[in-house]
Amino acid sequence: MGKNIVVCCDGTGNQIEKNLSNVLKLFRVCRKNDEQCVYYNAGIGTIGSSDAWARYRQNTKAVFELATGYGLDGDILAPYDFICRNFQEGDEIFLFGFSRGAYTVRALAGFIHMIGLLPVDQLNIANYALRAYKQASYEGDFTVPWHFAKVSGSKPARIKFLGVWDTVASVIVPRPDRFIPQLLTLPYTRRNPSVEVFRHAMAIDENRRMFRLNRWEEPQPFVKNPFDRKAEPVSQDIKQVWFAGCHSDIGGGYPEEESGLAKYPLDWMLREAIAHGLNVNPATRNYIVLGKARMGSKVRYTKPDHLADAHNSLTAGWRPLEYFPKSAKWMEWTRRKFAGMYLPQAEPRVIGGSSRKPIIHKSAVDRKNGSDYDPENFPTDFDTES
What does the domain layout of the chain look like in residue ranges? Predict the structure, then answer.
């Protein structure tokens, strides 16, 4: 029996400090031993600083990186190197991410799907392999990846579990047919037949234009060995669930005493991952996630609370961006159009719109039924997830 390889990638603006994201809390809850090796990547723009000017520069850089995908290569290659150096036949790969970190692990999974895992002695060409992946002309274009596999001896690997909180971002990619690079979604970041189980926690109340949701397509197939053209696909195990709150009410990062809402998507993700083989410390989970007191500890963690105060992410620094024109082809909510453009003005996310009913977490339903919480995008027809 193999071991678990767990990769945790945080989002823009999160870092190792007192305000822990759900990614970092999951990292802390995971057991680290011979049966499970765990990796944490703080992500882009996340080096903490107490200096106000340094934080301003860091946040400005983070916004640029969020908009363009700049810096994504290093965030993909670092965990890829970790996986390649630790993977053995029979191991299970678990990937977790929040925000831009969610897009990072989805791109990492796409990279592994197309290229496979390089031998340790060939990791010096990983950056060239990543470039080939990013420049694939379409999904299913395996000409260059198969060449890499043949030359380098890379091996296929399935992703056992891909769990993300509120995925955002696309990236600027050079196009061989155009002089100016374009903002594109990387191959296999919306569909990936190498992923066996996919879980996505999504924010009902996030309205910022820079944080539009990057959804996973469903349904879609799972193929255990993507390099085998004769492999028979089965149905991929997918759940995408909506939770009350803004972006960081879903992925965490606010002060602990303000994290009552964020505990629901964290607990849900952990329960889903545990059901598929993730190994956690129950006592640490009870302490950090469920807010149960730990004997001898002065630190207190907040319990899940569906009536906890939600945050307004559209602060003064973000609001001016809502009044810059945007192409009408990206419009999600009713707005006035002019010359093919419109002003986003904090447009709500559309919940539903696919062939499947949207899934709303019970905590959000309880919040709506037990308070004045009544977002305009809350659907009337949905399934409930506990």
Answer: 4-315+351-384, 321-348
